[in-house]
Every structure is written in structure tokens, then in C-alpha cells.
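Q: C-alpha cells for this one, please.
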Amino acid sequence: MSQHTKPWPGGQSARKSSSKKLLPAADGKAASDGDTLHVSQAIRLVSCDTPESHYPSASSAKAAQSKLDTCRNRLENGDFDAHLPKKLRDYLLKRLTKNAGQEQIDGANRAHDAFERMLAKRLVNAVTQKKRGLGVLPAGEVIDSYGRMLAYLTPWYDTKKEKLPPKNDPDRRTFNLQMVEEGWAAFFPIHGSLPSTRADFDLALKAARLAWKKKRGVWKHYGANYLLGYEFRMCVKLGMPYKAKTATSAAVTAKTLCTGAFQRVCIDATGAKWKEVGLHGFWEVEPPNRLWVWNDDIATARKQLPL
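A: Here is the predicted structure, written as C-alpha cells:
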């Protein structure tokens, strides 16, 4: 168990939930009575991050590779030298291969299929074959800038009809944890939406370290230098077109692209006392030991995390 004495922050954060509204139900039946509303709501699993297959401007292997190649060229020709440290540039270049776009899409499809298998298996009672509900545990920020609910998902056991598994039973895992455990998602804990207890965080951290060590999931298929989902998004942003300033929009330059691509501070959670490695230092931390803090939330995080 943790040696630090600061209260575990869990969902605490200085950041506010997005003001984007929930969506009405697709069947048009918005309200059943005066105080109940049916909604169709996208949910983003928190603390885990799978490869991307529908990222804007990079939703096909060809489009993704084009953006990654542009990013690679800029890293090689010096566009970002003044804005990104050399070791970070070298780290990214090692992962920006000629097949990185296709591997990103393939990895996303494999992760999707794995998640579908988990849902099909765990949302059905193996004895009665009756379907279970889905438990949704909202995280601290609740709704992100894309209008998605941020949450942990788990099978819902109706204890009137079936026995709840013991606390440490694998059947009690969240789907978030299982995706990390099987290597289909990188551990991606963000301050403000962390597991509710330090024990739960440590459980996920242990699972992530084991998946990395055993090279499960995406690492089994594509190797240790696989471009993780959040790294892919960084590189796509670095590969977006430059634009001159106009009367209605600001210029898009190498500097602004770098600022937009790196908005989270990385925390190295390897030891008992964690270490802040900054916006550009994540490359020096093994993937399972990375914890993230939005740059505008770092002052709050410094008071709450064992730094």
C-alpha cells in the first residue's frame, strides 16, 4: 500500500465538466414523465487508452500514414527543434514507421473485437444465460469536451437474482481494468478521473506493468515500439497543415502545433515518491508508469499527489 500521507485525490480536480449537453434518445422518446429523460450517451472508458480508428483527419490507414509521415518529416528536418527536446523527437521517430498508420488501425480493430468479446461474455449469466445490465461509474470530470461521459464500466449484478462475486474476484473487474490487463489499452490515468481509491489505482498499475512485461495485446502483435493511442494523437496533431494568419483565424505554426499536441504533464509513478517529468518528458517513463495531469490542473495535482 502507498507510503504517502496525502489524501488520495480520486476524482478531485480543478477542471470543470464540459457544458455540452447529453443527447436525446435515438428513438425520439425523450421523456417518460416530468422528471425522467431517456438519453443516448457516448461513454469514454477512463484510465485506459486504445489505438485509434476514427480520429479526425486520420480515420483510415492512408490518411493516418499521411499525417504521420508529415510529422516524421518535420521532426527530421528541424521544424520542431526549437519546441521539442531531441530525446522526445528521437523517441517519436523510432515509432513513426512506414506501417505505423496501418498498425494503428489494425490495433484499434483488435482492441474493439477484444472489448466486444468481454461484453458478450461478462454481461450474460453463464448459468441462466440471462443478460446483465451495465454498471456506469462516472469519473470526476463527468463530461469531456467531446460530449462523452467519462466513466468506469462494470457488469451490473442484480443481487436479488444472483450472488455478487467476492471483492477480489476477476468478475468484479471494471472493463477498463480488463482492457489494460490484457494489453489492448495502455494505462492512461488522468488526474481528476483517477480510480476512487489508491488501492484501485495500485491494482490497475500492477495490471498495466504485467501487461507491459509480458507483452500482451498490442505489444504482442506489434512490438514494444508500438505507437500508443495518445502518442498517435500527438503525432497527428504535429502533422496538421500550417496556416497563415487571417482576419478570422490565428496562424498555425510549428510552435502552435507543439503547444496543442502536448497539453498534459506526465508524472512518473514508478516509485513510492512520484516524479514530475513535464510536458515533454514522458518518453523516459515506461508506459505503465505514466500518470497524466492537464497543464492547467498541475497546481492542484501537486498538492494531492505524492510528488
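A few notes: The longest helix spans residues 100-122. DSSP finds nine helices and twelve strands in the chain.
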